[in-house]
Amino acid sequence: MEQIKVTIDKKTLEVPKGTTILAAAKTIGIDIPTLCYFSLGDMKIENKPGGCRICVVEVEGRRNLAPACATECTPNMMVKTNSMRVLNARRTVLELILSDHPFDCLICAKSGNCELQDMAHRFGVREIPYHGEQSKYRVDTSPSIIRDVDKCIMCRRCEMMCNTVQTVGTLSAINRGFEAVVATAFEMNLEKSSCTYCGQCVAVCPTGALTEVDHTRQVISALADPKKTVIVQTAPAVRAALGEEFGLEAGSLVTGKMVAALRELGFDYIFDTDFAADLTIMEEGTELLSRLNKHLAGDKEVKLPILTSCCPAWVNFFEHNFPELKDIPSTARSPQQMFGAIAKTFYAEKLGISRENMVVVSIMPCLAKKYECQRDEFKTDGNPDVDFAISTRELANFIKQANIDFNALPDEDFDNPLGVSSGAAVIFGTTGGVIEAAVRTAYEIQTGKSLEKVDFDELRGMEGIREATIDVDGFPMRIGIAHGLGNARKLLEDVRDGKSQFHAIEIMACPGGCIGGGGQPLHHGDSSILMARQKAIYCEDAGKTIRKSHENPYIKELYEKFLGKPMSEKAHHLLHTHYFDKRTKITIE
Amino acid sequence: MAEIKLPENKLNQLKEICKSFDNKAGELINVLHKAQELFGYLPAEVQEVVAAELNTPVAHVFGVVSFYSFFTMTPRGRFPISICLGTACYVRGAEKVSDEFKRLLNLKLGETSADGKFSLTGLRCVGACGLAPVVLVGAKVYGRIAPENVKDIIKEYEEL
Coil, strand, or helix at residue B40? Predict the structure, then answer.
């Protein structure tokens, strides 16, 4: 790579040709402020519309100021990032942005975690010299996400995530000039649109324009109600990220402290979604083997590849975009919903209480889970299997509200029986994990042999699309993995066109899988945080005594005492689901 | 699941338009242009079809339609009146002309009369700045218009 010499703030350095001023400055510790610019470098995700002009710098010989994020270094370029001209321009830009922004920071959901607020703080803005018309747009509330575009600064990060990365295509800038907003087609509400609720727009929004629907108050009400037994389940990815909200280093595992905090908050039983993940493997793995063995027996009708169905945003995505393939995904419900179904039947019976007096709360790294638990097919007589799904961020806030010194908490254990899980279940939290867990179980059931090595390194990693062939006693099982819905779309198109060679495909909607979910602590574009969370997940797996779902003793007991066997009629009724065609129909009058 | 309806012959013509541009998403503006010629405006249904045919998100199609003032989502009148509000026309009194049209027709810019006869839009520069202020009714150009001429222009079409 050709190296070129540039001088930034009197420091001369060499950078590869094509490096932006912003990136070059960063290598020598100069932090040029940015607002619209966003990058998850390791995941090849970047947004640089050059629109906000906060990052402008002075380039010698250039008439106007240059946006550092979108300007490449040229040989012998002389750059000033902090001249008076730059500082004045930057302040003016910021003041103009703020002049059309609501001043409700005190009660804004993003307060304390807002990049615009940080910028105002960094620049010491104490008054806004510009007074004029302010944007007024309705607030759009959906089951998962709230859009309050009056707080939008038109950075277009959400649009980039929704269109380029996820290829969902729900959000687009509309209108022009002062009227311009990011909205859906025909300005319909998100709920009516093709939104999958993956929450990646929320994960990258620098301000309070896109936030989650907060269900904490409903959970507090349930906890305060003496008639209710409140059960909590925690998704695998939460334990690998919750600590960040309490100042711990990314990748700190806080499973024990999280359990202690939940107990302190007053939940009656602290259970684990991981238990249900083991259950998912029993059902999904059995379904996989059943389809595979039919295929091997020469059945031409059997649908392959089988697609995982744990991710609710992914389910929404194929219901909207590939409804013709709706009999390809596994019919297994997601772990969240399997947990709810078992809790409100098996466990409610065991406690001798009615399902109406049981409240199931789930702690999720995900915003689509809020929508999922409200789906009609997961209700019995109007009562949902899972009552409320709150995000990792909401749980962190709840813990802070309750005066709990999280870091000083002792490590505590989940309750039995729905809190016991295998290492296979915990890796559900990262891309590649669900399929690795399925392989561990499917291999042993199919071959009757015990795996010598439980770790399948060939299934791990962060590449957007991965593939591997697993030798199942002489049968080469071809596996595909995609994370990020844009990558999923590519694999889906192959399946639709009959070109897919895979037997099984794992799909997770969010980049990185659940560890990068829309409900996780905000990473602000630092992809090393996602890597650290992934490492933590595999670390938790390695430390578990039980590593395979079918060896979880409480899962065995559940089948013996309640469900019968995997794919039994009862299991089908409680643990499986069906999908809908949600594509817009164009018909002839 | 949303459902949209279009008459069959129009739907086929619209698909033909998309096809004539090789169903390329990059030809979106050209496709919309032709589609508006066909339907007179671009209702949501038409945008849905265009999006499906060009394999591009309907939000993006709507983004383009809402960005360009030439595209409209409301049916235009039989006699679409466009008042140039470009710089030259504006400084020569286009706003007063516009106000007079609004007053006499009891319409706002962007609206169509209840009987479907007239619609009123503002546009930015038709390139006839020498004739400023300029008004268009359909393809007919009226130059150097003053508010007092407005009544006569409307009269021309009222009987038709």
Answer: coil
